[in-house]
Amino acid sequence: MDELDLAFGILPLSIIVLSIIFTYIFKKVYIMPLVSIVVSVILMFTVFNLSFWGWVVVYGLISLVLSYITNSIRKKIDNRNK
Question: Fewest CB within a 10 Å sphere: which of 11, 17, 32, 63?
Answer without folding.
Answer: 17
